[in-house]
From TrEMBL:
Organism: Desulfarculus baarsii (strain ATCC 33931 / DSM 2075 / LMG 7858 / VKM B-1802 / 2st14)
Protein name: Diaminopimelate decarboxylase
Residues engaged in binding pyridoxal 5'-phosphate: 239, 273-276, 373
Family under the similarity heading: Belongs to the Orn/Lys/Arg decarboxylase class-II family. LysA subfamily.
Reaction catalyzed: meso-2,6-diaminopimelate + H(+) = L-lysine + CO2
N6-(pyridoxal phosphate)lysine modification, residue list: 60
Family annotation (SUPFAM superfamilies): Alanine racemase C-terminal domain-like (SSF50621), PLP-binding barrel (SSF51419)
Length: 420
């Protein structure tokens, strides 16, 4: 069954009509299908069954608490990258001992909060971070569980803006330097060396770069063991891609099958940090056509969503499929058009030069595969309130984040008399 399919001529998310949601909540609105997210999570668990493993959802992809809570209830943990994410993960019911903390720029207060919470592991990304973490842990009378995020220098063959495992990227510790840093970390009094980690990039559609990275990490683990270090965890990060257009990313089962032979020989607990894969295809951005506009050069469909709601096309030139909510939109007539928002930027587009039904004011569109890095990367640019978020489960649905109001736009701002 298609996740989003037409019933009686109307696009549905699971058992719920998108027209019904748009009428009740307005647009633009993100709609997430919970069963699809759960099914993806379960696919990872099944693929790695029999191996000691923990799926730490990379919550940067979609940090709605209802989404986080859904994975936590299935035994999932979280990969966090900030103190804000730590707070949200804990509030959504993710146990601290299932949280790993990545990122090149962890601030002192963030390290302190995560230490006090008792997270599973800090994926440390620089020599200086080791020193700072050791000092903070010492001051608090705590021991910090660490892995070093190494940069295995493999080509993830993905968009240049989302590759992270190349030597020239800012992420992780150089593979050649990591060995010495491990020996140094093992001597620091307030650190406990727990594991090794990496994350090579996002939206990968091949397994080979993951296998490459795993083999390099496995080699490092063996060398460290010979030095007497007792490692318990190997964290391979996230990065498995989804289908936006014609891509054929590996399934969790195919991914697991290729990694298993190396993992089984290592005897370590496996941590994975999938983000996009768990939520991306399960979400759409629901938007309404506001104007249809034709210039001498082009046709434009101006909708009520814009780059502040979904920045991926503007930022990465990324492709999102678009489907009319009414199956018979355009009554068979088609034309090639750009779907754009109302923001004052030429780069404000959702879809470019796409063959579409002829769309009219009031028509509803679903921008597909928008569950990951959609709302999470949204902003209030042009003073536009952020969209609502809705979670669907079977025939049920609920608003899991209300649309921002005009008042929300000015919250926290202060004007003193001398300013005006
Ligand atoms: C450290 C880390 N882990 C996990 C992820 C999740 O990546 P993805 O959404 O591609 O699975 C990212 C983002 O690329 C990341 O930086
Ligand atoms: N935000 C990106 C991917 C970056 C992943 C985070 N490290 C996207 O929309 O595809």
């Amino acid at each position: 069954m298609d996740l989003f399919e037409y019933r009686d001529g109307v696009l549905h998310a699971e058992g719920v009509s998108l027209t019904e949601i748009a009428q009740a909540v307005g647009t633009p609105t993100y709609v997430y299908a919970q069963s699809a997210m759960r099914a993806e999570f379960a696919a990872f668990q099944e693929a790695f069954a029999g191996l000691d493993h923990l799926i730490c959802y990379a919550m940067k992809a979609n940090s709605n608490k209802a989404v986080l809570g859904s994975f936590a209830a299935m035994g999932g943990g979280a990969d966090i990258v900030s103190g804000g994410e730590l707070a949200r993960a804990l509030a959504a019911g993710v146990p601290a001992e299932r949280i790993v903390y990545s990122g090149v720029g962890k601030l002192d207060w963030e390290l302190e909060a995560a230490l006090k919470a008792g997270i599973l592991m800090f994926n440390v990304e620089s020599a200086q971070e080791l020193t700072v973490l050791d000092q903070i842990a010492g001051r608090l009378g705590l021991k910090a569980p660490v892995s070093l995020r190494v940069n295995p220098d493999v080509d993830a063959k993905t968009h240049p803006k989302i590759t992270t495992g190349l030597a020239k990227n800012k992420f992780g510790l150089d593979m050649g330097l990591a060995f010495a840093q491990y020996l140094h970390a093992a001597r620091l009094p307030n650190l406990v060396v727990k594991g090794v980690s990496c994350h090579i990039g996002s939206q990968l559609t091949e397994v080979a770069p993951f296998v490459d990275a795993l083999e390099r990490l496995a080699d490092l683990v063996q060398r460290l063991r010979r030095e007497g270090l007792r490692l318990e965890i190997i964290d391979l990060g996230g990065g498995i891609g989804i289908r936006y257009n014609q891509e054929t990313p590996p399934t969790p089962r195919e991914y697991a099958a290729r990694l298993r032979p190396v993992l089984e020989g290592l005897g370590l607990k496996l941590v994975l940090e999938p983000g996009r894969r768990l939520v991306g295809e399960a979400g759409v951005l629901l938007t309404r056509v506001h104007y249809a506009k034709t210039t001498p050069a082009k046709h434009f469909v101006v909708v009520d969503a814009a780059m502040n709601d979904l920045i991926r096309p503007a930022f990465y030139d990324s492709f999102h499929a678009v489907r009319p909510v009414a199956q018979n939109a355009g009554n068979g007539q088609r034309l090639v058009a750009d779907v754009v928002g109302g923001i004052c930027e030429t780069g404000d587009f959702l879809v470019r030069e796409r063959d579409l039904p002829v769309l009219r004011r009031g028509d509803l569109l679903a921008i597909m595969s928008a569950g990951a890095y959609g709302f999470a990367m949204s902003s209030q640019y042009n003073s536009r309130p952020r969209a609502a978020e809705v979670l669907v489960c079977g025939q049920e649905w609920a608003v899991v984040r209300r649309r921002e109001s005009i008042e929300d736009l000015s919250r926290g701002e202060e004007l003193a008399p001398w300013m005006i």
